[in-house]
C-alpha cells in the first residue's frame, strides 16, 4: 500500500459520517437517561403495559428529546464555538449547516409529538410538548441571562418518568409526581458540580452559572443543600406507601452518606485542585445515586400500592 493510499484511508476513517453527526446533535447520552427514566415510570405504574404503546412511547419520547437537543445546538451554535468542549460539535465545526440542523430538530419533535398523541394518549403528548417548549424556549435562551436557567432546565429533564407513568395510566398519580420530583431535584446539584469544574469555559461563552454568579464557595453550599433535599424527597415513596420500610432504611444509609460527601467540598480551598477533584467525584457519584434510588423503589415497592 502506498503512502498516499494510507493517508486517504486515514482521512476517510477519521472524518465523521453525516449520520453520526446528525446523531450527535440529539445528544445520545441524554437520550439514554430519558429512555431509562421513561421505562421506569412505565414499569412502576399500576395497570397493564401494552407493548406497542410502550415501544412507541419510548421511541417517541427519545426522539422528542433528541429533536429538542438538535434545536438547542442550533440556538447555541455561536456559544458552542467559544467553548473548548463544544467547539467541535457538528454546527460550529461546519460539518452540518445551521438550517439543516434546525429542520432536523423541528421534524423530529413534530413526528414525536404526533406519535405520542395518536398512538399513546393526549396527556403524554401534552407532557412531551411542555418538556420540549420549556427546554427550547425557556431554558436555552435563559442560560445567557440568568443562572436560574438551571431550574428551568430541570423541568423537561424530570418529565420523562412522568410520561412513562401516563403512558400506562393516562393519569397523574402520587408516585408519578414523586418520580418527577426526585429527578428534578437530582439534576440541580448534579449540574452545579459540572459548573464548578467547567466554570472558565462557561464564563468564556457568557453562560450564567451559579459558580460564575454567586461564587464557588456558595455553590458548594448549595450542592449540600440540594443533596439534602434530594435525600428527603427520596424518602417520599415510603411515606406515600409505595415502598417498604426496608426501602426507607436503605435510603437513609445511602442518602446519608451521599449527603455527607456533598459537605466534604467545604474542606477544600476555593480554586484548589482538590476542590475540582471533589466536584468531579460528586458528579460521578450522582450518576450512581440516581439509578440506585430507582432500583431500590423497584425492589422494595409495596405491591398493594402498585396493584391498586
Description of the molecule:
The protein has 308 residues and is mainly α. The protein has two domains: 17-172, UbiA prenyltransferase (Tetracycline Repressor, domain 2); 173-308. Helix content is 78%, strand content 0%. The protein has 16 helices and no strands. The protein has helices spanning 3-14, 18-25, 28-44, 51-75, 77-80, 98-119, 122-142, 149-169, 174-197, 199-204, 210-214, 216-234, 236-239, 245-263, 273-299, 303-307. Helix 14 packs antiparallel against helix 15 (273-299). The longest helix has 27 residues, at 273-299. The radius of gyration is 21 Å and the shape is flat.
Lay out the secondary structure.
Blueprint: H1 3-14, H2 18-25, H3 28-44, H4 51-75, H5 77-80, H6 98-119, H7 122-142, H8 149-169, H9 174-197, H10 199-204, H11 210-214, H12 216-234, H13 236-239, H14 245-263, H15 273-299, H16 303-307
- The Cα radius of gyration reads 21 Å
CATH topology (fold) name of the largest domain? Tetracycline Repressor, domain 2
Q: What structural class should be given to the helix and strand makeup?
A: mainly alpha
Average pLDDT, to the nearest integer?
Answer: 89
The total domain count is: 2
Q: Unreliable runs, pLDDT <50, ≥5 residues?
A: 1-15
**Percent helix:** over 70%
What is the CATH architecture assignment of the largest domain? Answer: Orthogonal Bundle
- Topology, number of strands: 0
Attribute tags:
flat, 308 residues, 2 domains, 78% helix, disordered N terminus, mainly alpha, Tetracycline Repressor, domain 2
